[in-house]
Amino acid sequence: MPATPARLVVLVSGSGTNLQALLDAAADPAYGARVVAVGADRDGVEGLRRADRAGVPTFVERLGDHADRPAWDAALAHAVAAHRPDWVVLAGFMKLVGHEFLDRFGGRVVNTHPALSPSFPGMHGAADALAYGVKLTGATLFVVDAGVDTGVIVAQTAVPVLETDDTDALHERIKTAERAMLVDAVGRIAREGLVVEGRRARFGPAAPVH
Ligand code: GAR
């Protein structure tokens, strides 16, 4: 395990229960990572209040405050970089990061999505799975690339879809499993490292270069 905990910057757009799970896990020094800042694309969300309560610095970059999307993306990258992250965790961040962001942090940005990739990418993973009629769905942690939820898969967790489910009930069941997956996988990334070969990712140190 590295001598110093990995520095995580977490980006949120909403309630931030995944962020809270990371904050709670990181309270234990053995976890191997700490949340050094929380950013959002909007003001006033519960995720930012969770960071405040934990004494973690926050920042907000709103798309509407910038001339265009690339300018917003550059400002977001700049704000994140100020906190010198080892890893950036998108945890319910409802915007796509752009080229400048990925140029700066590419390979060190992970996102959690409420579906079993490659099924049901996009903004409505739980609703789309329910509407399609699958009997199993779940959550996926992946390394962010330029696509929509297309990056290399780091971890997945599955939950059943029940006949009585509506979107909220299903999403809540997904989120319970998702938080456990996120905490486990981010901790392993911090403590062990992450190796990506083609489409496949595994925890562990990169092979030494000879
Ligand atoms: C999570 O289920 C996350 O996977 C999803 O938003 C929820 C955020 O919950 N993200 C997306 O759908 C991104 N496309 P939280 O704010 O309580 O952590």
Description of the structure:
Helix 1 runs parallel beside helix 6 (167-192) and helix 3 runs parallel beside helix 4 (99-105). The strands form 2 sheets. The chain has a 7-stranded mixed β-sheet, with helices on both faces. The protein has helices spanning 17-26, 46-53, 69-81, 99-105, 125-132, 167-192; strands spanning 6-12, 33-40, 58-60, 87-90, 109-113, 136-143, 153-160, 194-197, 200-203. It has 210 residues and is α/β, with parallel strands linked by helices. The two termini are 23 Å apart. The protein is 34% helix and 24% strand. The longest helix has 26 residues, at 167-192. It has a single domain (6-203), classed as Formyl transferase, N-terminal domain (Rossmann fold). It binds glycinamide ribonucleotide (GAR). The site of glycinamide ribonucleotide (GAR) has 18 residues, from helix 1, strand 5 and helix 6.
